[in-house]
Amino acid sequence: xxxxxxxxxxxxxxxxxxxxxxxxxxxxxxxxxxxxxxxxxxxxxxxxxxxxxxxxxxxxxxxxxxxxxxxxxxxxxxxxxxxxxxxxxxxxxxxxxxxxxxxxxxxxxxxxxxxxxxxxxxxxxxxxxxxxxxxxxxxxxxxxxxxxxxxxxxxxxxxxxxxxxxxxxxxxxxxxxxxxxxxxxxxxxxxxxxxxxxxxxxxxxxxxxxxxxxxxxxxxxxxxxxxxxxxxxxxxxxxxxxxxxxxxxxxxxxxxxxxxxxxxxxxxxxxxxxxxxxxxxxxxxxxxxxxxxxxxxxxxxxxxxxxxxxxxxxxxxxxxxxxxxxxxxxxxxxxxxxxxxxxxxxxxxxxxxxxxxxxxxxxxxxxxxxxxxxxxxxxxxxxxxxxxxxxxxxxxxxxxxxxxxxxxxxxxx
Length: 413
Ligand SMILES: Nc1nc2c(ncn2[C@@H]2O[C@H](COP(=O)(O)OP(=O)(O)OP(=O)(O)O)[C@@H](O)[C@H]2O)c(=O)[nH]1
Ligand SMILES: [Mg+2]
What we know:
Radius of gyration: 23 Å
Number of helices: 13
Number of strands: 9
Shape: globular
Strand content: 5-15%
Bound molecules: guanosine-5'-triphosphate, magnesium ion
């Protein structure tokens, strides 16, 4: 089965890498191939801040590896793989890698010492001799979703895309809330398998726990649109219920690793192809416009972006609402000028942010505008003055879109 999915993934890569337009998607595809070839399965623990993700990670891995605490703690992703010798490597966005002592880890991955990840840590890779990892699992502890450290939600979202399986951690001390619902709803397409764990069961009595489990199960069934919800009550602090969760994951890895990988790769490929097709439409439209007309429209949208920024700086309250309004205005403008849907990667997640300050808001507006501007700049670079080249490039874009659609049709099961 994995043979097939590997073949499909390779054919998507072949298509994407042949065009400079889809370089970003080709890179993602290349990583998928590598994972499939190595049977490299990634399990991430994801959940709202303070649900106990890092405590659970330490309990599963058997060691005080991650810093834990009563305020939002984890600020960077920590990947743990099997290693006879313990070691910790900090990777930075600028490409630098540093070996650090375990006692120094919190300097890099805690909000208190590395607030909003100012140090630019892209991830920490730990080698740890844990039985749980022995069969080749990569375990990932992620920053909490929905804390006022905005970057954390985006990081968690990115990791959903890399995961084959997810432990989504809830906690009995708080009912599932809108932030968790939004996050799950937006990301359920990515992972092949979900394990829902309800943490901190040591803090409630049996009856309350039963009521909570029933409530969660019903809600998750509706949300995930399946009857097959696996819900594990655990206490990461006391170790209760962890063996059931660990065994379920390890068992699935033994018996159905290929199915899990196939399911998650199919989902990821569909997303990837959609994103590539969107990109191709945009380039195609821009290529086929008169140059004078194209310049006019680019100037118009550039002015519009400046206007939006000026407008944003004058807003004073309920920034979440203004942010949505701004995204909508920009998307409408792109549609009006280029006839295509322009989507922002993490649109819905930003909606559910609480306590957004003006500085956060302006930063997000800047990010959104930069995202759009970047796409426009790349389209301009791609443009050619020579009519013959335009025809050739346009037909190449069309051919690529056609091939991708064909592969996409095969992925629908
Ligand atoms: N009673 C009880 N407390 C727990 C349990 N698990 C975690 N905690 C506590 O919950 C708090 C948060 O734990 P963390 O592991 O830091 O939570 P987290 O989800 O990693 O938090 P972020 O990294 O900020 O997203 C800490 O004070 C833990 O001691 C549990 O099973 N029972
Ligand atoms: Mg944590």
